[in-house]
Amino acid sequence: MSAQPLVLGIETSCDETAIGIVRGRTLLANVIASSVDEHARFGGVVPEIASRAHLEAMLPMLDQALLQAKVSLKDLDAVSVTAGPGLVGALLVGVASASGLALGLGKPLYGVNHLAAHVSVDLLTHANAIEPTIALLVSGGHSSLLQVDDITSSVVKLGESMDDAAGEAFDKIARVMGLGFPGGPAIDRESNNGNSTAIDFPRGLTQSQDWRERPFDFSFSGLKTAVARYLEATPDYVRADVAASFQEAIVDVLLQKALLACKKSGIDSLVIAGGVAANSRLRHVAQERCDGAKIRLRIPAPALCTDNGAMVAALGSLMAAAGRPASTIGIDADSSLSVTCVSVA
Amino acid sequence: MSICLAIDTSTSRTSVGLVEDGALLWHGFQDGATAHGSALPQLVSQGLAQQSKVDQVVVGMGPGPYTGLRVGIAFAISFGRARGIPVTGICSLDAIAALIHEDDFVVATDARRKEIYWARYINGVRTEGPSVDLPKFVAAIGVSAFGEGSFKYQLTTNEEFLFPDMASLVELSKNSDNKINEAMYLRRPDAVPTSERTQ
Fold first, then answer.
1. Cross-chain CB nearest to B37 (options A73, A96, A105)
2. Can you give the pLDDT at residue B199?
3. What residue ranges define each of the domains in chain A, with the CATH number in brackets?
4. In whole angstroms, what is the distance from residue B91 CA to residue B186 CA?
5. Domains located in chain B, CATH noted
6. CA-based nearest residue in chain B for residue A330
7. Hey, what's the signal peptide range on this chain (chain B) (predicted)?
8. Does the CA dihedral A267-A149-A164-B193 come out positive or negative?
9. Which of A32, A172, B96, B160 is most buried, taking the most CB atoms under 10 A from its CB?
């Protein structure tokens, strides 16, 4: 295998049909078809709608990615695909397509972990090595703190959300406030005009006992309830202030725990990844606090934070370059694949 | 000499065949309503070990339970693109009906939720369907019934012709009138818009 493997990555774990192509650490193509508009009237992603859209979008995205990268399928060294976690019906479209490509081409297939891929995409924007690093992974489906010693083989979970993911909380609060779906960008925009200290919303799992027993776990359901109660009790609430205060509560607790993880592990590097990493307030406060704590912070460009194929290709390329074994023929999608499982055998 | 890879995942059986000029060179299958994802690549790999050169892909487009059906179609179109060979979609029920030599009959497969996907054939031509209905609706037609769904819901005791036939799938692809470009789900996704939900 080349030191700069040419890898095509397919991502279909939720509502984005995304294909990326990388050569080593160089991004050649990153195309996305989203069915997000079809889900808006349901207030959340409908798995069957997403799965149907994946099938329809697969070949157009494939052709577009190859055109953008100016490569042909037979040039590929390997194919990579998100094997989990995610919506099983949605994942299966990607896994079946990737299997068809790999078998058709006679090339190895890497079934990789969606969460590890989110972290590995950092490589495409930052040249310096990422390992070891602490990673804060925050998206619509996940909120996890990870210690990454080697992204192709060793990811340790330090903590995760006990209930809602951070992005899920954004979606739910945006819905309650009538800000639409997806909620993250809507609350981010609304917060620009609000006062983030107007309302003191609770920070989940930050009591002294929590810091002793589960320092790296998150909980956002109490915050969600607190915001809902506040809205009920305050008919003339200022929407921008509520949005900004809610967002601040999430950003604050995410970063408190991420920085503690750096401190306790002695690792002075933090990667923030996942869709919520596109949040402008999170990016801003993270930079401030990491500068203060002398921690090297890396956050991928916003377009690479949300679900994309480039990250899947990036992890596949790293696996191939590191000589990791390819997945066996007939891998299945695993909707609850643990983050510690970087790739499926 | 043209060698065709035939794939169907519209029923609880994942079927793969290699067909050359109407003759079945190789056939493999695996049963299991949730096994399509892992079974299909393994079966195709086994087939390619026998015969690696393939000139065309034919795939059953359903009707069938959504997730398994999509596995077959997604695999087929991607394999076709990888090899640069044509991919043709065919109604899976037709590939069961092709084996049956009766004047008037129905073919039904399991649509889950106590319903069946079905079509009626008179003198070798599909005259009704594919549709999705309760078994009693199809039973009321009063003609011979075949297929996995007919057997499951006791429209027949015949255990032959339960699943699409690979050689027939390929034979059907030779007539361009039989070609189907989209997955046949026959039902809309189950989802209720926020505005229509009862509080």
1. A96
2. 46
3. 6-122+305-344 (3.30.420.40), 131-299 (3.30.420.40)
4. 12
5. 3-91+164-180 (3.30.420.40), 94-152 (3.30.420.200)
6. B38
7. none
8. positive
9. B96
